[in-house]
What does this fold into?
Amino acid sequence: MGYIDELGKNAKIASQSLVKLGTAEKNRILNLVAKALLDETDFILQENVRDVEKAQENGISPVMLDRLRLDAKRIEGIVEGVRQVADLQDPIGQVVRGYTNLDGLKIVQKRVPLGVIAMIFESRPNVSVDAFSLAFKTSNAIILRGGRDAIHSNTALVTVIRKALAKAGLNKNVVQLVEDISHAVAEELMQAVDYVDVLIPRGGARLIQTVKEKSKVPVIETGVGNCHIFVDETADLEMATKIVINAKTQRPSVCNAAESLVVHEKIAEQFLPQLEAAINKVHPVEFRADQKALAIFKDAKAASEKDFATEYNDYIMSVNMVSSLDEAIDWVNRYTTHHSEAIVTKDLEHAERFQDEVDAAAVYVNASTRFTDGFVFGLGAEIGISTQKMHARGPMGLEALTSTKFYINGKGQIRE
It folds into this structure.
């Protein structure tokens, strides 16, 4: 039996044991896991240092290094996330609808687990714990395959979780880590249709595209965020400045950070110099602008076609000028990755049209794109942000990790 086959078989068996757990027991175990993670902070940080040092040797950018690095405060945040999931309402067993049909059959549709979830993700080690806690609360087993950069951190986190599960008398294989980080084994996971019910990739465009092309397991596409902010001609420019600065600089390595700025030509000559001066006081940003905007900036570079479609995950931002709302909507829809888009405007009609006509999972009016997040939306920890339209869209909380089943009870009815 191959490595992935073994993990898959283990996960299938473990998922069947989870179906028997009630909500109170799942919550109790999640709180035990939270305590174990907190108790093992020193061990987790020690392993994370190994990853950080290796990443620095490999010349990783400071922004991406921030995604990888853990500290005591971040561990506390991870632990709090597990506790919050324990406090959330359990969707398993919820009745979606119930009725008696014309044949007298009592039909009830309930939420049930997906079964076995696989997740392939990149540098952020907190994803291991978030994904486990959400999968566990929804009675799913999960197989995690993290990136090479975070292998020691992920191994430490999953080891602590598995020990806590075993101590609680549970099958520890409800969570497993793929410790062989070769591309060949990752591709085997993508083909594991006999064991895995759904595969969730979380990372950059290259990872997402690879999984979409090579996976035989059903895929929920997440993560890539070429997020736009359109500053309309009626925008409050002070508000627009604050929103753009927050969306671009607060944490540029995440998928809901703004990568692209679209500006109405009527306010560009006033707004762009104001933004440039203000944003440089927070953190220097390299603007890559079209020819019209380039002439207004004090210090910017000419944008290429590729720039307008790029998720930078860095202090870089593309800029394009437009002459109308229609042109802005067309531009955003041309380059969107269907994640999060925003308009800054005082015009209610423009706001409504932008929200209706822009094709994205989250569309904002007068707010930063940085709010697209499971916790902020009241869903608890998220397993990812779906940018597709099938099954789930936007931040994926507990309900997104469930399917439904019809329960039918009769009294001897047969179909004539």
In short: DSSP finds 14 helices and 16 strands in the chain. The chain has a mean pLDDT of 94. Residues 158 and 177 are 7 Å apart (CA to CA). The two ends are 48 Å apart (CA to CA).
